[in-house]
Design a protein that fits this description.
The complex is a heterodimer of chains A (220) and B (794).
Chain A lengths: L1 E12 L2 E13 L4 E5 L6 H8 L7 E6 L2 E2 L5 H11 E4 L11 H11 L4 H14 L15 H13 L5 E5 L7 H16 L3 E5 L3 H4 L4 E6 L2 E2 L2
Parallel strand pairs in A: 3-8, 3-9, 6-7, 7-8
Antiparallel strand pairs in A: 1-2, 1-4, 4-5, 9-10
Chain B lengths: L1 H14 L1 H29 L11 E10 L2 E5 L6 H6 L5 E9 L4 E3 L5 E3 L3 E4 L3 H4 L4 E3 L11 E5 H8 L8 E4 L2 E9 L12 E4 L1 H5 L14 E7 L5 H16 L1 H5 L1 E7 H4 L15 H32 L1 H9 L4 H37 L8 H31 L3 H6 L10 H32 L9 E5 L8 H12 L4 E7 L8 E8 L8 E8 L3 H5 L3 E4 L9 H4 E5 H7 L8 E4 L3 E9 L14 E5 L6 E6 L4 H15 L7 E3 H7 L2 H35 L1 H9 L4 H35 L10 H28 L2 H6 L2
Parallel strand pairs in B: 6-11, 8-10, 17-22, 19-21
Antiparallel strand pairs in B: 1-2, 1-12, 1-13, 2-16, 3-6, 3-12, 4-5, 4-9, 7-10, 8-11, 9-10, 14-23, 14-24, 15-23, 16-17, 16-20, 18-21, 19-22, 20-21
Helix pairs in contact in B: 1-12, 2-10, 2-12, 2-13, 2-22, 10-13, 10-15, 10-22, 12-13, 15-22, 15-24, 15-25, 16-20, 22-25, 24-25
Classes of the chains: A alpha/beta (220), B alpha+beta (794).
Chain lengths: 220, 794
């Protein structure tokens, strides 16, 4: 599904190159649940963003379902990104001005899905996440765990093949964190590929493979 | 999607109430001013447009002049109109209009009303001009003596909903029968007729000129010429006509000026001209100031929108992450800016509708919307909507949608130094504000200078009258009038003169020294005047003596000159100098007076000589007691009507006439002050909004600084330093430009203030003070906040 060949990411500042990622080679198959671990500044999030097509690598090749992402134009990238990938962040990143329902609806709007179909999809998801009663609340009226639930719901509403989660439990207390991890596990069991960045050994265990990053390198 | 945009827009406008208010208020006010000025331009440019025969109507103005003197009267002689109606193939219609004077009307219920816009007109005027009759018609309504027609408003005012036709109004003890009612004329016509009586009534009332070919100025004479008639040929026919009827000698001094209806509004005022005059310069000044205010408001909008969108930076990133394309984001931003602009347009239009009547009545006008205007107003509004929304919306839209979402989500994007748009726009705004403040102050100072400088003449409680007849013909009446007036103890002085301050006419002649170089002559202003001229107007005699009746040589052979004349004729010992006037007439200087202003400060004081000449007393100045003014004037009027029967009694105070010289400048000053004030307010609320944005952004920095020991003072300096630098930069740009522009304006005045440093200092101080107080509140609030609060949530 995902194949990274010699991916590097660096920032050039005058004459100094600051490397974030160095020669990353990685292959991820459909249905895997990968945990990326490593100390702060190791390049975990950057790797996630590159895989998620929100950032581009400085060097190297990236194949997504055998298509060369590193050669794609922005339009194609956006297209691929929005149809296949869902994102979950540590800070939830819901849109403050929109209600729960509207937050869930927005990705569908961008995909130009018809109203009737859209309403059905949103209603299903609200039901599945037990959030029907909260659908008209704004993000700041919810607890952190609830916000993250909404964020995950938003990430999966377009039925992506791949979910990228950047420390999804980082801002949550352990009970809520566990709930979120269970949910991700369940999604993985249903066939969604998941890549998560985490600091917690415990959370990493939910995955079936751990990648350790240090100073931009993958530790063997 | 649209629903989503609307939702987001409304919610974010509500969430950022201050920004929304600033934007909508600022833009709205700018739009109001622009609409005001736009309609004003339309109003001024469409004078008399309602006239169906507009292109072929001309007024025959009358220029009377002898030697170097020339005076333009709007009205011609009473005999001209009827003479033109027949025998001239190019004349389709001709008619006379005479001002009805200031007498009162008595309604059938004995109520008395005073009306200004009342005229006696020939029946042909009803066809020549355009009237829409409600009752009555243009063929017969004014054919009989003592018939009168009213405009709708007056008919309603006098008679309510009753049909006024057949009722009577009494004017000067004569009963006038109402024979018609017509729709109100628009305000922007040079001749606002509200009541029209038949011209034939004048004769029936016993008002008749003795020599209808030799009296002028009272009857505005209009002709409707056939298309493509030659004005030049017509003009020479007029000359022939006058020669044949008024005599060769009279005709020598007369020239007709054929004014097209279009020109009447824009040409300089002449004697007896009824309509208000337009001034294109003022139109431009007003219009450009209104645009400046709008530009300032637009900058606020752009500035605050970008500032606010930085808050939304995260949101932009999230939207990209969940699948928004760049185009979709740009659409969203533009939608928001269109919504704000639309709200501002609605607000601005409402404000315009509420205030425009006040504005117009201040300028002595009234605006009526009509269909063709509304079309151009709507087009302008839509144009404004698009331009403002695009300019203000496209910058943040293109700028923010470009960013890489990973960057925008991760780092809370900070205002960095590279981003200088805000700096530029703040500087531009304040440049405009300083420019306007400087301009307004200069106008204010100049007007103050003109109004309060000593003009060298005592102008209080002096009543001016003017004659509509060749003064030679009323020489004997003049003496009778003078003697009659002197019996009144409230009349303190009386003089006749050729011209007086506030009456715009000149009489220039050449003069040279008898003993000097024969070929060298200078041009001087001649003021033929009576013996009491200097005494009545309290001119200061600096040398020699006043005219005296005891000296037989004073009439005609002696002159008094002003100081400028002393200089320009280069007289070392002016008293007793012999000068040659009219090529051969020798006169002796008997006195020198201090310079005095006969005209406005726009004109330089000319070298001027005063001589006794009873043939030229066109204007009379009567100095009266400051008590019983109304009574004194009414007794003067009685005497006038007895002696100058058939001539309208029109008086004005010299002080008013003098003030009137500057009335248009004063109007500019007031309009400009309001505009400037609004510009400053809009700039400042923009600054306030921006400061509060910075305050939020800098909360953490301020917190850290306070933890490490910064005092309130340091924080306030930190806050204001940047703004003060920007404002000073604005001053540096604005001052030379303002200096140049105001100097250009001041060049219109021969006597003017010099631009001095105090005006500049006041402008800078004022701007800084206002700007700092706009910043101050937020700065102090931020500086005094508890630093722990700012840092706790990080």
């Amino acid at each position: 599904m995902i194949k990274l060949n010699n991916i590097s990411k660096y920032y050039e500042n005058k004459f100094i190159k600051t490397f974030v990622l160095r020669n990353i080679n990685l292959e991820i198959n459909e249905g895997e649940f990968i945990s990326v671990m490593g100390p702060s500044g190791a390049g975990k999030s950057t790797l996630l963003y590159i895989i998620g097509m929100l950032d581009t690598a400085s060097e190297g090749e990236y194949y997504f379902y055998d298509e060369p992402v590193h050669k794609m134009k922005e339009k194609k990238l956006t297209e691929l990104h929005k149809s296949h990938i869902g994102f979950v962040f540590q800070q939830y990143h819901l849109i403050d001005e929109l209600t729960v329902l509207e937050n869930l609806e927005t990705p569908l709007l961008y995909q130009k899905i018809k109203t009737s179909e859209r309403k059905g999809m949103v209603a299903d998801l609200l039901d599945r996440f037990n959030m029907v009663a909260k659908k008209d609340l704004f993000p700041n009226q919810l607890s952190g765990g609830q916000q993250q639930l909404v964020a995950i719901a938003r990430a999966i509403i377009t039925k992506p093949k791949l979910i990228l989660a950047d420390e999804p439990t980082g801002n949550l207390h352990s009970g809520q964190g566990k709930e979120i991890m269970e949910l991700l596990k369940k999604l993985n069991d249903e066939g969604t590929t998941i890549i998560q960045v985490t600091h917690s050994e415990e959370n990493a265990k939910y995955g079936n493979k751990i990648i350790k990053l240090n100073d931009g390198w993958i530790e063997k | 999607m649209l629903k989503n945009y609307i939702k987001i827009t409304i919610r974010s406008l509500w969430k950022n109430k201050l920004f929304s208010f600033i934007n909508i208020f600022g833009l709205g006010v700018g739009i109001t001013l622009c609409l005001m000025m736009l309609t004003y331009v339309i109003y001024e440019k469409s004078y008399d447009n309602y006239q169906k025969n507009k292109d072929n109507i001309y007024r025959l103005a009358f220029e009377w002049g002898k030697g170097g003197s020339k005076m333009l009267f709007a009205g011609a002689m009473p005999a001209l109109g009827p003479a033109l109606s027949s025998n001239y193939p190019e004349v389709e219609l001709a008619g006379r209009v005479r001002n009805g004077g200031e007498d009162e009307f008595t309604l059938p219920n004995n109520q008395k009303v005073q009306e200004e816009n009342f005229y006696f007109v020939d029946p042909s005027i009803l066809k020549l001009f355009t009237f829409e009759f409600i009752t009555g018609n243009e063929n017969s309504s004014l054919s009989d003596p003592f018939s009168i027609i009213l405009c709708e408003t007056k008919a309603k005012k006098y008679f309510g909903n009753e049909n006024p036709t057949g009722k009577t109004l009494s004017f000067k003890d004569h009963l006038f029968k109402i024979t018609g009612v017509y729709k109100d004329l628009p305000y922007n016509t040079h001749l606002r007729c509200e009541l029209l009586a038949s011209y034939s009534s004048l004769e029936a009332m016993g008002i008749k000129a003795d020599k209808p070919w030799n009296q002028w100025g009272e009857d505005l004479t209009y002709v409707l010429l056939k298309k493509n008639s030659s004005l030049k040929d017509f003009n020479s026919k007029l000359d022939e006509l006058v020669k044949a009827n008024a005599g060769e000698q009279f005709a020598q001094d007369v020239k007709f000026v054929i004014q097209s209806l279009d020109d009447i509004h824009w040409t300089a005022a002449s004697f007896g001209d009824p309509g208000p005059k337009g001034n294109k310069n003022y139109l431009y000044i007003f219009l450009s100031t209104a645009i400046l205010v709008l530009v300032i408001a637009c900058f606020n909008f752009m500035n605050l929108s970008t500032a606010r969108y930085f808050d939304n930076f995260k949101e932009v990133g999230i939207r990209k992450v969940i699948g928004a394309t760049r185009v979709q984001l740009i659409k969203q931003f533009l939608f928001e800016s269109f919504s704000v602009t639309l709200a501002a347009l609605v607000f601005g239009s409402i404000l315009f509708l509420i205030t425009y009547n006040k504005f117009y009545s201040y300028l002595g006008a009234a605006y009526n919307f009509n269909r063709s205007h509304i079309a151009s107003i709507l087009v302008t509004i839509l144009l404004l909507l698009f331009v403002i929304a695009l300019i203000a919306g496209s910058y943040p839209a293109l700028f923010l949608s470009k960013f890489n979402p990973a960057q925008t989500i991760k780092n809370d994007f900070m205002i960095n130094k590279k981003f200088s748009f805000r700096q530029v726009s703040t500087i531009v705004q304040f440049t405009f504000s300083v420019f306007l403040i400087l301009g307004t102050l200069t106008v204010y100072k100049q007007i103050d200078f003109m109004k309060n400088s000593d003009i060298g003449i005592h102008k209080e409680n002096v009543v001016l009258l003017s004659l509509h007849q060749n003064p030679q013909e009323s020489k004997s009446n003049y003496e009778i009038f003078k003697n009659e007036l002197q019996k009144n103890s409230d009349v303190l002085g009386f003089t006749g003169a050729y011209t007086l301050p506030g009456i715009n006419s000149r009489f220039s002649i050449s003069i040279k020294k008898q003993d000097g170089d024969n070929s060298k002559s200078s041009k001087v202003q001649l003021i033929p005047a009576d013996y009491d001229f200097i005494k009545t107007l309290e001119l200061k005699l600096v040398n020699g003596r006043d005219f005296s009746k005891e000296m037989s040589t004073d009439a005609g052979e002696s002159i008094i000159i002003n100081e400028t004349a002393v200089k320009s004729l280069n007289l070392n010992n002016p008293i007793g100098s012999k000068l040659i006037m009219y090529g051969s007439k020798i006169v002796t200087v008997i006195g020198v007076v201090k310079d005095f202003h006969v005209y406005s400060f726009q004109k330089k004081i000319d070298p001027c000589i005063i001589s006794i000449n009873p043939d030229s007393y066109f204007t009379y100045a009567i100095k009266i007691n400051d008590k019983n003014i109304a009574q004194t004037i009414s007794s003067i009027k009685d005497v006038w009507n007895k002696i100058f029967a058939g001539q309208v009694f029109e008086y004005k105070f010299m002080s008013d006439a003098y003030k009137a010289l500057y009335s248009s400048e004063e109007k500019i000053q007031n309009v400009l002050s309001v505009f400037t004030l609004l510009a400053v307010i809009i700039s400042c609320i923009g600054l306030m909004g921006f400061t509060s944005y910075v305050a939020v952004k800098k909360t953490k920095e301020i917190g850290v600084r306070k933890v490490f020991g910064a005092g309130i003072y340091n924080i306030i300096v930190l806050f204001s330093r940047q703004f003060v630098i920007w404002i000073i930069a604005a001053c540096i740009i604005a001052i030379p430009v303002a200096f140049y522009v105001t100097n250009k304006w001041l060049e219109n005045f021969a006597y003017r203030i010099s631009m001095d440093i105090t005006i500049i200092i006041i402008s800078i101080m004022f701007t800084l003070l206002v700007a700092l107080s706009a910043i101050g509140y937020r700065a102090i609030k931020a500086a005094t906040a508890n630093p722990i609060k700012a840092l706790r949530y990080e």
